[in-house]
Design goal:
This protein is α/β, with parallel strands linked by helices. Helices cover 32% and strands 17% of the residues. The protein has a seven-stranded mixed sheet, with helices on both faces. Strands 6-9 form a two-stranded parallel ribbon.
């Protein structure tokens, strides 16, 4: 089975792409340049919110370097770089490769004509447990809502609506007392990459995957839903200690029910 990758450029995205390329015949990788890992804070923030903003994004940068290093582009025959604006004009790249399956992690929303060039077996890795957490920043919101056990990933068929396709597999990392929000996010990517390798082995072996319709309701979070003041819950109230509070029983929450492949 011949694969192609559509990826973002952050360390977590390239880690995932490299893991896939080590295990499968990847004919090409389309990489979207993503925004700076440490974005500038909005103007006119209070001192309190500015401190939290810088703490949050510097910690994210440092944790990704710790867990993923500085991964390069996968060593595959064909590589194309694109911007967010040019992503969906890259249908010719996929058409030329003629992959049997495409794996996606980290670019912007895929729309025609690129969407129309994708094969049936096209799967996105979404950082969030759909349908409860769909859209943007969906490993942040489980912490804001004090649901760290919901900081997982969803491997799903791509459709035109964000993170709404049939689910092939979901996973979440083991939680430990010293885990911060960004430890959990990085471990979620590592766990997902390991699981996806097993899922794709099954796809190669059988030509099919068990797929599950998203039946429950959730929220499609927009990038505009996030405000700097939301960071106060993580850092001012809990000092980035939410995982420990959950493990010690200080926070009660409903455990997620996840869809997973059988016979991996």
């Amino acid at each position: 089975m011949k694969f192609a990758l559509i990826s973002g450029s952050h360390p977590r995205h390239l880690y995932y792409a490299n893991q896939i390329a080590r295990h499968f015949d990847v004919a090409g990788s389309l990489i979207e340049y993503r925004e700076n890992m440490i974005p500038m804070p909005p103007k006119m923030l209070s001192v309190r919110d500015n401190v939290n903003w810088m703490r949050h994004f510097y910690n994210r940068f440092n944790k990704e370097r710790y867990y993923f290093g500085a991964p390069g582009v996968p060593d595959v025959p064909n590589v194309r770089y694109t911007t967010a604006e040019g992503l969906n004009d890259c249908a010719d790249f996929i058409q030329a490769i003629e992959p049997d399956a495409v794996l996606i992690f980290g670019p912007g929303m895929i729309r025609p004509p690129l969407f129309d060039a994708l094969p049936e077996h096209t799967y996105n890795l979404h950082l969030g447990l759909s349908p409860r957490y769909r859209g943007a920043a969906t490993l942040f919101w489980p912490f804001y809502f004090l649901e760290p056990a919901w900081a997982g990933t969803t491997f799903h068929r791509i459709v035109s609506e964000p993170d709404a396709g049939l689910i092939a597999h979901q996973s979440r990392p083991a939680l430990h007392e010293n885990d911060t929000i960004h430890d959990t996010a990085c471990k979620a990517v590592i766990t997902a990459a390991d699981d996806v390798i097993n899922v794709c082995n099954k796809l190669e072996r059988t030509g099919t995957l068990d797929l599950h319709k998203q039946k429950a309701t959730g929220k499609n979070f927009l990038a505009s839903d996030f405000q700097p003041a939301h960071l106060r819950m993580i850092y001012d109230v809990f000092d980035d200690d939410i995982v420990r509070a959950y493990l010690d029983g200080e926070i009660e929450q409903r455990e997620p029910k996840m869809y997973q492949q059988e016979d991996l």
